[in-house]
Amino acid sequence: MNDVRELLGRAVEGAGKPAFSAGAVYAKAARIRRRRRAAGSAAVLAVVAAGAFTLPRAGGDEDPARTSVASAGPSASPTDPAPARAERLAALLPGDVGEIEEVSLLALIKNATPEQARTIYLGPLDGQYAFRKDGGVGYLLLTLMDRKALERKTGRPADPAEDLCARIGQEPARDDCVREVLPDGRTLTTWRDSMDYAGDDSVGWGPELVGRLAQPDGSQFLVRSSTGFEGSGTQGPLLSEPPLSREQLKKLLTGPEVLPKG
C-alpha cells in the first residue's frame, strides 16, 4: 500500500493545512477487502449494488465528490486545466476504455473541499481519473515525482536502478512483477496488487495494476490502474479488470505527452 500512500500523499502537498492528513486517507484506503464479504458489510454492498453514493457537500455550491471535465478540476497546472488534461488523456487511449473524467480521491473518500484537494502537478497529464465502463468505475492515478520528493518520502537516496521485483513477498504485494530496462536507460516496472490488506475502515480497494517508470535523473512516474473501490464515497461497482492494461500503461508512460515541457 506504499503506492497508495505516495499518490494520495502527493494530493495534499501544497494544499495549505487541511483538517486531515494523508495518513488518514491511506488508512481509509487500506481496509481489507474480505471485510466487505462479512455480515457487517451488507450495507456497503447494498450501496454499491445501487450504483452510486452521494456525498454531502463540504461547503459552497460546488459538489466536491465529482468534478466534471467541464469545470476547473480538483488539481492545478500552470498551463493545463482539468478539461484539457482529461481530453488529452482520452485522445491517447483506445476508445473502448470508457468515459474518462478527472476526480479527486480526497474529495470522494474524505469529503475534502475543492481548496483542500487542490494540487500542483509536475506532469501535464498528472492527475486522478475515473474510468466509467459497463456500469463500473475504475481509476487511473498518474503522478510524476522528482528526485527530491522521492527522497523526502523514502528517507533514502533515489536509485533509478533499484529492482522493485526483488521485493516480492513483502508489502506492498508485487504479483506478476515485470521489470524492463528501456533502450533510453529508463526502467519500467509493472505488477499486480490484489489490495488485500488489513484495516478497519469503510473503504476497500479492488485489484489493480501498478507501474513505476524510473528515470536516470532520479525522478519517477507512479501509476495505478485500479478496478475501483467500494464503501464510503464510491461512485459505482468495481470494474472486472483494471481500466488500462500493462501494454497500455507502458505506451502511456513512455510517450512524450506525459513529460513536462523542456
In short:
The chain is of the alpha+beta class. It is built from eight helices and nine strands.
Question: Could you walk me through the main structural features you see in this protein, from its secondary elements to its overall organization?
Answer:
The protein is α+β, with helices and mostly antiparallel strands and 262 residues long. It has 8 helices and 9 strands. It has a 7-stranded antiparallel β-sheet, with helices on both faces. Strands 6-9 form a two-stranded antiparallel ribbon. A hairpin with a 5-residue loop joins strand 4 (175-181) and strand 5. The longest helix has 11 residues, at 2-12. The radius of gyration is 17 Å and the shape is globular. The two termini are 32 Å apart.
Order of helices and strands: HHHHEHHEEHEEEEEEH
Biggest β-sheet: strands ordered side by side in the sheet: 1-2-3-8-7-5-4
Structural class, from helix and strand content? alpha+beta
Strand fraction band?
15-25%
Residue share in helices? Answer: 10-25%
Multimerization status:
single chain
Q: Which runs of at least 5 residues are low in confidence (pLDDT < 50)?
A: 7-73
Total number of strands:
9
Number of helices: 8
Give the termini separation.
32 Å
Shape: globular
Q: What integer value in Å does the Rg equal?
A: 17 Å
Could you tell me the mean pLDDT? 73
Largest sheet: 7 strands, antiparallel
